[in-house]
Amino acid sequence: MAELLRTHPLTAWNTAFERLPDTVAVAVEPFVAMVDVRLGAGGAAAAAALGVELPVVPNTWVAAGTGRAVWLGPDEWLLTSTTGAPEELEARVRAAVLPLGGSATDVSAQRIGLRLTGARVRDVLAKGCSIDLHPRVFGRGRSAQTTLGQAGVVLLALSDAADDFVVLVRSSFAGYLADWLLDAALEFTPTPHG
């Protein structure tokens, strides 16, 4: 039986992303394991069992080992890992939260990440996102479930001082968002002179 190769949905956009200037750099993030965690009561006990501090402040994220824990709702978090296999992460999280009445679902194939960096990235994001992206309001550790263009995304601010973001988008909207970002960045992309 032939083995299926995992292909990133944005492979065809890599060349276009590489042509963008440093002021609006877009890079495709590698696949990461992602688990959606739901908990009723017992969030503190689950955090202790997981060995991960689950953020309790709305619209925030925290580092969690080799990944992140992102607040998605009062009883829902997204846990990511850059080193664990999706099935291993899901099994570990499920074992920790199931005795507490929680659930864990592997959603690794649901979203992909784009890393946006550069001095004009907030300007590009502001073209299609209605939240306040000023560093005082949306700095390191902040997250938002919002729309960018017409795609639903989870936006994470990675830095206070620099413009550094991760955008998590559903795989089925990845091509649309890639095209939207390239179009939104045109204003900040120097044109070649002939």
TrEMBL record:
The record, for InterPro entries, names: SoxG, TrmE/GcvT-like
Q: Which Gene3D superfamilies match?
A: Heterotetrameric sarcosine oxidase, Probable tRNA modification gtpase trme, domain 1
Taxonomy, superkingdom? Bacteria
Q: Write down what this protein is called.
A: Sarcosine oxidase subunit gamma
State the organism's lineage. Answer: Bacteria, Bacillati, Actinomycetota, Actinomycetes, Geodermatophilales
